[in-house]
Batch of 2 targets.
Target 1
Amino acid sequence: MTDRESASLGQRKKARIDRLAAAGRISEDEGVSLWQSAWRRLRTDPIFLVGATIVVLFVLLALVAPWIAPHDPTARLLIDQINRQANPIPDPQPGHPLGGDDAGRDMLSRLLVGSQQTLIVGVMATLFGLTGGLTLGTLAGGIGRWVDAAVMRVVDVMLSIPSLLMAFSIAAVFARPNQWTVILAIAIIQVPIFARLLRGSMLAQRHSDHVLAARALGVRPAAIVFRHMLPNAIGPVIVQATLVLAVAIIDAAALSFLGLGNPDDSVPEWGQMLGRAQQYFNTEPQLAFYPALCIIVVALGFTLMGESLREALDPKSRR
Amino acid sequence: MTTATTSTTQPGRRSGREPLLAVEDLRVTFGSRTSRTVTAVDGVSFDVAPGETVGLVGESGCGKSVTSLAVMGLLPARGAQVAGSVRFDGEELLTLSPQRMAEKRGAEMAMIFQDPLSSLNPVVPIGVQVTEVLERHRGMKGGAARKRATYLLERVGIPDPTRRLSDYAHQLSGGMRQRALIAMALACEPRLLIADEPTTALDVTIQAQILALLNELVSESGTALVMITHDLGVVAGLCSTVNVLYAGRVVERADRHPLFATPRHPYTGGLLASIPRLDEERGRRLVPVPGSVADNIPWEEGCAFAPRCPNAGDRCEAETPALVPDRGVRDPRLLRCHYPLAGDRTEEDA
Amino acid sequence: MTSTAVGTDILLEARNLKVHFPIKRGIVLDRTVGYVYAVDGVGLRIRRGETYGLVGESGCGKSTLGRALLRLEPLTDGEVHFDGTDLSGLKGGKLRQQRRHMQMVFQDPLGSLDPRQTVEQLLLEGMRAHGLTKGRDVRARLVELMEQVGLPRAALTKYPHEFSGGQRQRVGIARALSVEPQLLIADEPVSALDVSVQAQVINLMEDLQEDLGLTYLVIAHDLAVVRHISDRIGVMYLGAIVEEADADSLYEVPLHPYTRALMSAVPIPDPTVEDTREQILLAGDLPSPADPPSGCRFHTRCPWRQPTRCDDERPELRVPDVAAVATGAGDARPHRVACHWAEEIFRGEITPKRVTATDTVALETDGLGPVAEHPSPPEADEDVPPVHGG
């Protein structure tokens, strides 16, 4: 290397240092991703905290229910008190603060243990629905062209049928309904909702500059879909999933209410308890009131979480 | 807080003309008790006389748009605190009731915005939008209002105005939309027009049409115009007095000719040196202003521009400069700087 | 060390390039009801090491042209040759390999960076796609890229939303440089930035061109920026280049009426110049590129429009018979213009129709026929003189 070259190298180095100063301040701290910054906002959002508290309590309850339930939820402890005409439902009494159900089983214990089954139905149905929706949405939004057209026509047809009616039809197909038929029925009606949402969100990404930039870099199409489009499109779907969880629990109750739920009531579930309560609704409303209240509170918890998550992920309010 | 408000040192004051709009020590802060507050406008003063065009120039975050919204009373009542004084024809606007303010807007003062599409109602024909203004503020009725609306559209250069009355905003081009917006703003012959980046979204040939139109309005009808822009080229051709804003404060105010000939504030000078001019020799290396508008220090601790300033010295990060009459130039000028750029006035002059 | 001299060899050439977007209607079956003629027959040559500036207003097709040159838009017709390789026929993996040599810088620095990736991930992606991470010190390369664009290495761990606009544009440039391209196509690289920051990015691009021997195509609406940065300039109007010349020649001897109008409309930050600046105001707006005018596409707005040829004969880009401009003989490249009357307009034999601020009735729609029927004002001094003496 000649002297002149090294001198010009020195100059160039100086020019680079000047450039550094010209770019303005950059802190030395580690970068904060969008999810991290959303989490920071959520941590101080009272609405999210209320929702999260409800949900966490519900999950904890479901985990420890068998140990804290005062009685066996399937034991017909109060069957002796039941008189078909005069007193179909055992009243609250010492040891049974909420009384019993129409089969003489302890109400409080059934509610506590019922949280387990309710959680399983809600989470499983949403998870299956989400998986199906993500698959279809990614196919439609990622590949486009005729795949998109085909997927979206199927989705349109599914969406044109009222969702509960659809769930009833699916559940009714099975000769012997059980827990899994309920989950499947609810999952299937969620699929088009997730698929459509993700597809729309993916299409917006497809036309964004950063996807164009990745194409210009020579990144493979599959990598563009999974590395750039999907992660940026999934936010609204996650929000939707938390809202759908609440709806799934209510839907399960609706299925049970119409006798399409799990007939095996040895494992209690809130929706199914609500369904059984219908024949006593006029005379003994508390039988429906307790599970209904539980469902509403849990659904509210998920909805509050979902709404605050939507706020936190909104790019317009990002800082 | 030191803010020069005396009209004797006010550049651009033509003798015998009372200001139509007098803004004094305007301060706008955003935020509430829970979140930290942001001072967007920090003691801005300026005034505008009839037939005069005053420019507010600066980059994003300098407070120019917030100033105009505060003058028009268009800031949200919740979240924005406005202090200081805005007098229109001698009447204090900041203490007016929202109803009285709404009557003034449209009737006596009007505003046009950068984005004409979002400023027009998409589901109402533009003719109806113009006649609405006339009916509300002028009490005009159907036929007369329509006739007047047609005249206004013609006045701002919209071809075939009778047919255009029934067009919707999306059917018009960007330039035509901005014209329609100007027609609405002019409906009641306002005495004050505030134009917030009116040509930024437009192409340069369309910008030329709109600027020519605004110029014509000011000279023919004596409208007072406040021109808000980041484009020094637009300012050079249009404004009689220019206020350069930085981080919510006026840093330099002068008539346009001396300001462009001898910029005194390093920020003004930096802006001029950093933009390529169409008419200059090629090959000049641009002199950028280092950093970005985010690299500020609070005005309370010194000069907000100091971290980006090539002239910055010891006093800049210790002592807040005041906006004071500048003795380094021959023209009447206000300057907020400890170490200004070279002026045109020698010791003998002084 | 790289050579910085502008060579004579052509790095990028486009021949009769056309990009037409179908306009589709219909719910079940998509029917094509028409086309947007975004780029309609463009030929251009960019020499290795030079900066070619493409200027025009919104809707003129300049951004589409830029993307089409990178094969990021489907070509309706025409060819693109890069360094001797015909890109127009390439597909899939072959095309992806070529992308390494030609990169893009975008207008919106935030939108063009994936918000969920750190700068390091953004930079590594292209390098990985082209096998540039194998057998070399990747860390050193990342730091070098950061230095080249004037960012500290702490920036590597950050996400796009944590930067200012100018810093983001530097990241965008670093990403483009990460695959060691020869050509950078910059689409409005500074128009989204604050005025005081624009010069930083312009200077940075100039420095990088010098250091790395890059070739640029800069697309912008701001004629002052384009003239500052470019060696050669093409002026676009409605999908075609209407005038092409070296930067100084274009400024000193603008021959196309549109170029003249465009130049006269650019405000100059100098009140003395502004007070005397003669503007050629154009009537009306840009016609829709879905329904471009017949003949010369500028005839609906042209103040110099003539009763013959303009309406029905599309002018070719040609070297005019004007002594003041380069003809292409020798080393100098020709000044070309697509106007039937360029010579007559240059010599002042044809005078323009004067347009005022409120007179925007499009010549085409006023139904009054060609210009000759409503003559220009009789006073000689009312005529718009050539913008800049030629």
Note: The first helix of chain A runs from residue 3 to 22.
Target 2
Amino acid sequence: MEKLIEKGLLVIAYSSIAILFIITFFIFKEGLPFIFREGLGTILGGVEWRPTKGEFGILPMVVGSLLVTGGALVIGVPLGLSCAVFLVEFSKPKVRRILKPAIELLAGIPSVVYGFLGVILLVPLIRVHLGGPGLSLLAGSIILGIMILPTIISISIDVLEAVPQSYREGSIALGATTTQTVSMVVLKAARSGIVTAVILGMGRAIGETMAVIMVTGNAVAFPGSILDSIRTLTSNIGIELAYASGDHQEALFATGVVLFVMIMVLNLVASMTRKKRIR
Amino acid sequence: MIRLDPALSQKLVRWVLVSLTALTVSILVFIITYVLLKGLPVLGWEFLSTGAVDAGRGGGIFPFIVSTVFITVVALAIATPLGVGTAIYLTEYTRETAATRVVRFAAECLAGIPSIILGLFGFITFVLFLKLGWSILSGGLTLAIMVLPTIIRTSEEAIIAVPQNRRDVSTSLGGTRWQTVTRVVLPGALPGIVTGIMLSVGRCIGETAAVIFTAGSALGTPTSIFASGRTLAVHFYILATETDAFGMAYGTAAALIIAILTINTLAYWMMHRIMRKYS
Amino acid sequence: MEKIRVKGFGFAYQGGSVALENINLSVMRNEILGIMGPAQSGKSTLLRCLNRMVDALPGTSRKGSITLDGADIFSGEIDPDDLRRRVGMVFDVPVPLPRSIYENVAYGPKLHGVRGRKKLDELVEFGLRSAILWDEVKDRLGTSALRLSGGQQQRLCIARTLALDPEVILLDEPCSGLDPISTLKIEEALSELKSKYTIIIVTNNTKQAARVSDKAAYFLMGELVEYGRTKQIFTVPRDRRTDDYISGRFG
């Protein structure tokens, strides 16, 4: 009986690996033959996406994903990091005890709600004051930047709290101000942890779908400015999967393969920086 | 570069950090209050207890509440035994080896997979390959994969926090490993495990990309797990993107946010209590 | 009659750090053996070998044998869970499980399949009476065991062990965190238990060893320095190191 239970638990424990394999297998099984047939270069390098006419270039989407993720980081990282530094190094512990869980709770707000508010409030604002269609790279970056805030803040707070108090005391004892201590000692010690926070935020941004579909306009083209519309890899799948078939559907899986590989590389990097931190 | 007086720069930095933190917090608070203010007037008994009329432009959200509950229950009924079982195996039945590191890495990778990829996978595997069609079951299976890493991680942390000497007592009284797990370890870890499950419930309720292509968007109330069902988040997405019934959309968003925030607050409250107990 | 025999026994933890080397001793039925020694001398390790609690540790190795009623406890014939029922153990800090007093004592019997309220009631009362705790808790068996005082908790742990009706009781510095009055109560309980059980008590309190034990052993750095009648060890120790220890010049 005991042996049986142990075997059962072993099978259960390995199910995570099995699931990961099955996911990889099915996504690649649908996407890879298409990639081989069309050629990786034509897909990744192609700029025209006309699935009905047999043109399947996803370069604009790759660029769109990278741009909107970059934009999200530009907005989310300074805000999130400032917030974490303020809460850990400058505020009273009581303030942190209230605000940290409050911010983490916000991670639970569904992405569709963020997207909807983006359409209702942010997009008209951009259209009226900055010009362009409003549905844009800028709108996507702002919404995603806000969405990754809880991730970045929460992990950064943990990382900053883990910096030994003796580091701070050593610096303060030498006559440094809190600002000097934070910029010269604490942030240096917490560097790799903060990198992990940023990478995880990046993963969340690059993988986000619904909010991005709602606010970026989804035009397949290279944006000339941040006020132009873009389409991301995730949006491409989200918009077209519902009615795609045949080659078109396979092309969407190929898009999935590209996205999957990008995410896995990010995961590897994140896992490596985390290990380095432990060491 | 001009060297600022340290005291002045201290003041300056503090001021910048305070305003950025205030900005962050007010954005997040604004999102919630805005949705609740707009949505609460719509959110009456009538709205909660009736079906949709005219594709959601009128009527209520009852069928979508049922679908959401159904899918969430299916997802957790699958993910909880798998996740808790994995956690038990990793903590109680094996030591840190190459194999357990692979299991942990796989779980980490699963956690990083974007929900749209899970949607793609669920669509090709559950809906088409296993011929489950757009159904509560397909959606539930897909969400189970999505929350599995969360359940593994929170359960593992909860199990590790149970004092080792309780296990020793049980063993010294002749308890088998499984008896010790079920009678000493799991009861001690239960609050932490429940917290993880509640956080997962919150994620299931708010998810859109992974369910829209697996559970479909049927308007009716699902009568079995093989029927298609539209979750609240999917309904909200469709209302927001395909109709102009913004009033209904706000009502649905308010229902979503209230449900998720309530569950997450309960989860955090429990986590806080556990942490206080052990420290 | 000989209950336990340790013969040429050696034990090493992972990485080869030797905890016990060539230990030879025997314990008679209804006898109390007191094991003394400073920290890290291997006395607790020996205790944990006697009921195979060391099984859970990775990469250990052992030499020689330990027999219980003539049967090698490490041989395949003996089931470790059954061995632990026969050889009960009380730890250095009292570890009540977060349950009621009643449930704590009934925990062991339930593990071994005892069912039925009446049978369990009997075992719980028997255990608590034997550990001289019954009179103090009989009216509040349903309250949490965590509410008891430290000394009561430790007697509860003894009661929990006794409810399994073991043959041998191992105690690992059972009074290390307790006040003198609680210590006295536990020693009192031990001298009554002697008539029914074989007892091995590890202690770094030499006076306690002198008070309660029939035979005593002195361990130092994994070596059994001296072993014999308690009276003899405390009056005419054969080894100078034992003399140093019991007279307080060392340890």
Note: Residues 61-230 of chain B form a domain with the MetI-like fold fold (CATH 1.10.3720.10).
